[in-house]
Design a protein that fits this description.
Keywords: Membrane, Transmembrane, Transmembrane helix. The protein contains ten helices and eight strands. The protein is an alpha+beta fold. The protein has a five-stranded antiparallel sheet with strand order 4-3-2-1-5. It has a three-stranded antiparallel sheet with strand order 6-8-7, covered by helices on one side. β1 and β2 form a beta hairpin. α8 packs antiparallel against α9.
Amino acid sequence: MEQLFDIFEKFIHADWFNSLIGAAIIFAVTFVVCRITVYFARRLLNRTSLLPSSSIFINVIRATVWLIGIGFVLSLCFNVNVNGMITGLGVVGIAISLGFQDTLSNLIGGLQVSLSRSVEPGDNIRMGSSGVTGVVKDVTWRYTTVVDSSGNHTNIPNAVMTSTAVTRLAPLNSVSIALIVTTNSERLTATAHHIEDAAEKAVSRVSKIKKGPSVSFSAITEHGFQGTLSFTIANASKAGNATDAAIRAIAPYVHNHLVEEEMDSLSAPAEANAGRPAAVEREPIEMPQA
């Protein structure tokens, strides 16, 4: 504690005018360095896949830069021994940590969630106990923000995120439509291609497509061939409209027996005429005049 009193006495008897000018210059430099560091950190997080683009890393970097700047101000402007101050604050630091126990647990929880990549911005999740479902917007030093389908924002403490079961759901912009195709096996592949083309044309009018429609079959039932039409769009908010457009477009091909009957009815007369002998055109016979 004597070290703390000595530091406080030096702080009181400091040359305030020069100290304030020096502190203002150091704070200005710290502000510029902080902005530049945060800018490059954001670009690095957006480009690299090693870490998620959570703002908790930006918050930690910003706090670190400012703590270093404050340390320079105390050391250069007010002749404060920063190392001695940290040593003297040992007992006080314990009391402060106990008072900010929830804040520290949320900070550590946010770092744990982000570094382990268990949850990152853009994930569609469901919380086990609370039942909160939505897309993770950001992970800050205290909360994880989740946005549901109605646009409501829910702030979940990071400590809860680390102690609760979290289920990762399929992305909202990823659409899967279950279908049963009632065509014969010979036309199954052609029908699948027709479905994919029709869905792509319909969905492209609603939203930009990130991953084109694809049909995959999983079972043969008494009703037909069971499968799934899957595609990914750029705008998750238009997933419902894209699903509606795709279903309307593929409906004639899913129940393909109607199309087949129409094609068979058109081809039947042609096949019947093909089996008949071709008609021979004869020139008219002129009768002799009496």
